[in-house]
Amino acid sequence: MDLHYLEIFNAVAKYESYKKASEVLHISQPALSIQIKKLEAQIGLKLFDKIGNKIFLSENGVMLQEYTKRIFSIIEDLETAIYDTQSFIGGTLNIGGSNTPGSYILPEVIGEFKKLYPSTKFSLHIGNTSEIYHLINNGTLDIAVNGGSCFYNEHIYVEKLFADKLVIVASPQNPYCNYPEINISDLRKMSFVVHKTDSQLYTYYINFIEQIKIPENINMYLGNVDAIKRAVSSNLGVSLLPYVAVKFELQFGLLKMLNVPEVHMDYPYSLIYNENKALSATSKKFIDFVRSRI
Q: Which residue numbers delimit the HTH lysR-type domain (predicted)?
C-alpha cells in the first residue's frame, strides 16, 4: 500500500473536501481525485460517498481513517525521535590525541566541554601520531588532534588548528642556562634527551640537527614527554619540546628555556576525522568547540 495515497486520503477525509485538501497538499483537484480512485482500486473498497456536491466518508472510509490517523501519528513520533537524536548533545565520544595535544591540550578542552554538556562522556586515547592516524582511519576514534606532520589518506579530513613553537629546555642546574644566548657551537656540545624513534618529536629533532648541521648527540630515548621533562629536570640532557608541553615547568622554574636566536621551528597541531564515518551531533559540536578553544 502506497503511503503517498494514504497521505492524500487522510487529508481528504480530514476536510471532507477535495478543494481544501488540494490547497493543503498543493495538488490539483483532478490529480487528487485520480489518486483516491487508485487507492480505492488498490484496496478494493469504496472510501467516499457523494451526496450532491458534498463528499462523506463511507463506512470503509471511517475504518481506514482510524488506521491512517494511527499510522501518521507514529510517523510524526518517529520524525520527532529522529530530530531529537540528531540534535542531542551527549553520549560517549572516542577522542584521540598524539602525545603533546593528548596530554597538554585536550584534557582542558574536554573539561570545558563537559561543563556545558554534562551528558557527554569521553574516552581519550593518547598515542604517537601514526597510531592516532591509524585509529581514525579504521573508525575506532571519532575525532583526534595530532601533532607534527603526517601523510593522511584522502578520506581523512585534516584541518590545521595552530602552530606551536619548539623550544630547547634544560635543567636550572645546567650551566648553559646562564648564557644570554646559545649559538650553534654551544649546541654541538649538548647531549639531548629525545622521544622514541617512531615519534614525530624524534623526527623533528633529526630535522633540527640537520638544519643547523650539528651531529646527533643523544643521551637518552624515552617513551613520553613527561619522562623526558623529568630526565631534563634531573640534568640528564637538554630537549627540544613543544612550548605547550613545558609552559607549566617554565612558569614555576622547574625547567629553563635556552635562548637560541638562530633556531625557529614550528610544531603544528591538526584536527582530523574520517569523512567516511558519520559524525553525531555531539561530534560536530565538539569539533566546533575545539576550533574555538585551540
A: 1-58
168 pLDDT higher than 90: yes
How is domain 92-160+269-293 classified at the CATH fold level? D-Maltodextrin-Binding Protein; domain 2 (3.40.190)
With cut-offs at 50, 70 and 90, classify the pLDDT of residue 186: very high
Query: What secondary structure letter does DSSP report for 224?
Result: S
Question: d(Cα 198, Cα 230) in Å, to the nearest integer?
Answer: 20
- As given in the structure block, the three cell numbers for residue 158 are 585534516
Please tell me the class of the 3-87 domain: mainly alpha
The model carries a pTM of 0.72
- Within 10 A of 127 (CB to CB), how many other CB atoms are there? 19
Q: Which runs of consecutive H residues, i.e. helices, occur in the chain?
A: 3-15, 18-25, 29-43, 59-87, 99-104, 106-116, 129-137, 184-188, 200-212, 225-233, 243-251, 281-293
pLDDT at 217 over 90: yes
